[in-house]
Specification:
Elements lengths: L2 H26 L4 H7 L20 H4 L2 E3 L7 E6 L2 E4 L7 H4 L4 H5 L1 H7 L7 E5 L7 H8 L4 E6 L2 H13 L5 E5 L12 E7 L8 H11 E13 L12 E2 L1 H8 L4 E7 L5 E8 L6
Parallel strand pairs: 4-5, 4-7, 5-6, 7-8, 8-9
Antiparallel strand pairs: 1-2, 2-3, 8-11, 10-11
Helix pairs in contact: 1-2
């Protein structure tokens, strides 16, 4: 390569690195930054997407759903949906937090799973499953005739999930590597979707909920578990909490009907919706 040509390539690569860092902050949080820089040599730049990652969110109509601000909370990505700033994603480095010993007392996971009223044979999806902290509990509740999909967008978390399930000898689970816009589950296949402290981190909440609704059977349930924004005593950063009103505002953009809000957990509300189109509406 000639020297002038080499300098042009270097300048373009430098500009692309800056652009990739901006995209990582806006769309995916800090964890995607290195991936984007490494991906520059492989082909066209795509913001934190896999082979089909952005899809519908590239269209003008989809872009209009979101607002971007340079002046924003450092715990957020500068992207807003219906007035709410989206929080940074917890990366693989946060796996220890998911398994902390005091979590049982703080979140009462067994009480949560009990409140879901799962039955043997149910098919459940744990979105943002992480280490599988709730997946193995639900796998026991649905018995060997049921199935739990553990969905995560980070391969490192999927690997850790698989390891944890093997250690517990849980066999009725299936790890699924999703994308930032798609849970990649079969259509009309799931009885219940559980999201524990994860929805507020979706970089594309509208598209993800579209995908989740497609995966639900008619009459299937979606359960949002989020730290209560309304309670100032909850010791969690603001962007990692959500109000019940905000959850309902965002969920009801989709074919979902609110059923109930369970308030038995110490710090979180459990907000339950049913997919419309069933005889039980």
């Amino acid at each position: 390569m000639s020297q002038p040509r080499q300098k042009v390539v270097q300048r373009r690569l430098g500009s692309a690195r800056v652009f990739s860092r901006t995209l990582a902050q806006l769309f995916c949080g800090r964890g995607a930054r290195n991936w984007l820089i490494l991906a520059l040599a492989a082909g066209p730049l795509r913001p934190c997407a896999d082979e089909k990652g952005l899809g519908a969110s590239d269209t003008p109509a989809a872009s209009a759903r979101y607002e971007f601000r340079s002046d924003h909370d450092p715990d957020g990505i500068g992207k807003f949906f219906l007035g709410r700033e989206i929080a940074h994603v917890m990366g693989r480095q946060g796996a220890g937090w998911l398994e902390r010993p005091e979590r049982g007392e703080e979140e009462k996971p067994d009480l949560l799973v009990q409140s879901l009223k799962l039955k043997p044979g149910d098919v459940v999806a744990d979105i943002g499953a992480g280490t599988g902290y709730f997946s193995w509990r639900m796998a026991q509740a649905v018995d060997g005739s049921g199935l739990v999909y553990g969905v995560d967008i980070q391969q490192e978390m999927i690997d850790l999930f698989t390891k944890k399930m093997a250690e517990r000898k849980i066999t009725n689970v299936k790890a699924v590597l999703g994308s930032i816009t798609d849970v990649r589950l079969p259509t009309n296949s799931v009885d219940l979707v559980l999201m524990v402290d994860v929805y507020h981190e979706f970089s594309h909440p509208y598209e993800m909920m579209q995908s989740i609704c497609r995966s639900l059977k008619p009459g299937g349930r979606v359960v949002f578990v989020e730290y209560r924004l309304e309670d100032p005593a909850v010791p969690i950063k603001r962007l990692h909490r959500m109000s019940e009103a905000q959850v309902r505002k965002e969920a009801e953009l989709h074919p979902l009907q609110w059923i109930e809000t369970i308030k038995t957990l110490p710090r979180q509300h459990v907000i339950v919706f049913r997919k419309k189109g069933s005889p039980t509406e």
